[in-house]
Amino acid sequence: MPLPGVVCPRCHGALVADSESASCTACGAQYPVVDGVPMLVTALSPQHLHQREYFDAEFSGYDEYVIENWRLSFIERIFTALRLVDGYEPYLDVGVGGSGATVIEAGRRGVSALGCDLSMPGILRARDFARREGVDERCSFAVCAAEKLPYEDRSMGSASAVALLEHLDDDRAALAEIARVMKPGARVWITVPHTFRHIPPPLWPVYWWHDRRIGHKRHYSARRLWALGTEVGLQPVRTTYSGHPVKVAQVGLGLFVRSMRRSSSRLWWTLERLDRRAESRPLGALQLNVVFERRT
Predict the structure, then answer these.
(1) What region does 17 belong to: left with phi over 0, alpha with psi -120 to 50, or beta?
(2) Torsion from C-alpha of 168, 45, 151, 128, nearest 10 degrees
(3) pLDDT tens digit string along 12-46?
(4) What are the start-end ranges of the H helices in the chain?
(5) How many whole angstroms separate alpha carbon 158 and alpha carbon 94?
């Protein structure tokens, strides 16, 4: 039977599938189907394999859907910037991870949403969480590499890629693929680690260790990310910064003060507002966020 919503990542031909495999009607490529989820992956690099092993292990430990304060707040920033509830759908999150939170929360708002990731355990967890949350009719998931997206040209109304590009050997290829699947006028939210010269020096050793532990290949300046987007047909329309020292304090307090983890915590949300007020200030920020728009 036809496989709706996705195409062959090699040639973008139509796919037909049964319970065990999917095949391309154009080039004949074959892909496995695992528990109803297509694994639309072509050749993988050593970096891909390392990242898949790392995140497969992490996502396999996700047992329940939890929307923490920080995640909810960041999702709201993304959805507002992308004008998600104003009809700019379907929405795609590239590198959705095992929580599936962006896709699930978009579905909760009545938006058609798609999520993809290289990790099969992560995608299976996200798909199951969407079912438990009662939004699975508006959410769909696929396993793929960001550099070869299994979606048609100009098919998405908005997209995000949070903490993705820094993991890839070829970040330009991934951003070009995201640009390819965007409709004209669609917006894309990108979050990457900020360049070290703007990060507070006391945090350099910790971030350096984190980069190597998790597989980061690089950090970004705003100019570098703007240029990368412009090269592939995306125009930067808004740049913000997050993860200022107040955010570090907020996270640290949350580790030791249980009440800070509650959605009703006044102190947590006060600190969150302070971080948002600093969103135009690059100095001290751990993350760089750029909203791009596909013009044509």
Answers:
(1) beta
(2) -90
(3) 999 998 889 999 999 999 999 999 999 999 989 99
(4) 46-59, 69-82, 101-108, 120-132, 171-181, 204-214, 222-231, 245-256, 266-277
(5) 11
> 178, 172 in Cβ contact below 8 A?
no
Position 147, amino acid: E
Contact in structure between 202 and 227 (CB atoms under 8 Å): no
Sign of CA dihedral 77, 107, 122, 290: negative
Count of CB atoms situated within 10 Å of the CB of 218? 14
Q: Which DSSP letter does residue 258 get?
A: G
Dihedral of CA 121/178/148/140: which sign?
Answer: positive
Hunting for tokens 């992308």 — which residue is that?
A: 82
Question: Half-sphere exposure (CA, 13 Å, Cβ side) for 6?
Answer: 32
Facing residues of 291 across strands? 189, 238
Q: Which run of H or E residues covers position 132?
A: helix 120-132
Residue whose tokens read 């728009």? 293
pTM greater than 0.90 (yes/no) = yes
Q: Which of 151, 145, 196, 141 is nearest to 171 (CA)?
A: 145
- Per DSSP, helices labelled H in 27-100 are 46-59, 69-82
* The pLDDT of residue 2: 55
